[in-house]
Amino acid sequence: MRARLRPLLHLAGALLLLAGHAPAQAAAPLEELALQAAQPVDGMAAGNLSGLARCADGRFWAVSDREDAQLYRLQPADGHWQATAEAFAAPPPPPSALPWGLRMGNRLLTPLRGGALDFEGLSCDGAGNRYLLSESQLAVLQLPAFGAPHWLPLPPELLRQARARGLLLHFNALLEGLAVQPDGQRLWLAAERESRGLLAVQRGGERWRCANGGCVLLAQAGRAPRPLDGPGSAAQPLDFAALSWHAERLYSLERLQHRICRRDPHSGAVERCWSFAAAALTPERRYDTPYGVAEALWLDESAAWIGLDNGDQANAGGERRPLILQLQAPAGGWSGRREHPIRRAGPWRARLEQTSF
């Protein structure tokens, strides 16, 4: 029996060897989203647009990571957005469970940068409550439609589980995105980079707890080149910059790769991505920075709005105000399937070195 099987085993081994040396196919390019408008924001004195949302009343709101006591209502004007400040008084944040080194780094940076709470995300629920994500405190502030602002009592195991999976380990690379289910019963948080990840908590009465299976949906390390980088350029860490919820799906803004991805809200698994590189990286809209500047995302069935946090730096066209890019939704809608599925990754994709753990 062994003698008769030996030729078949040799053949199988040869086929596997050939498969291992078969030429890799290139990945199909992502569909580019068409630009509808690119308009500056007037009235944000400190700039640094770091969060964007459209609430149930149809109004757009924005937040700056340099200001702890106000957010901005945005209204379309003649060729720009006009920002009007709305003040609020945040109570003292809950005690931080971050390690001493990260807490001290945030405290030392505040006088230089401004914005001790470092708001990096903004979302709304269907009742008109607004939610602000503080990166420095790893906390979520609710601005209720009626009543005083208060911090949500997030579960202490959120940080423990995240750090055990390699998330929230580095200064200035903590939480960067927030999405809220319309009924206000579930929150998603994005860990920015090194490693990047998606976290979820859900409400049970007056308490918040980790979603079924734990707080961490996805933890992912890896690196990738920027869209305009040439061959041999150094790859940068993968990141998440913002989150948005639409039609039972989670959408991530991925700043480095200039793309929006639809993700499964229960696992964080990517389902489909679209590129906005062509719209954001025209010669006049480029910024002299090694990193992307896309920081805020909101989308509906018709379009996606991306806010650029340019840090008061002018782009190549001389515009120093924050910009909001309005991108048309894909022809098949955000829930549509790709007509030509992505093929196996080619050699350049290997540079991603992605690892989920």
UniProtKB/TrEMBL annotation:
Q: Does the keyword Metal-binding apply?
A: no
InterPro entries documented for this protein: Phytase-like_dom
Report the domain of life of the source organism.
Bacteria
Q: Which UniProt keywords apply?
A: Signal
Task: Provide the Phytase-like domain boundaries.
Answer: 47-197
Signal peptide as annotated in the record: 1-26
Q: Which Pfam families match?
A: Phytase-like
- Has UniProt tagged this entry with the keyword Signal? yes
Q: What is this protein called?
A: Esterase-like activity of phytase
Organism of derivation = Geopseudomonas sagittaria
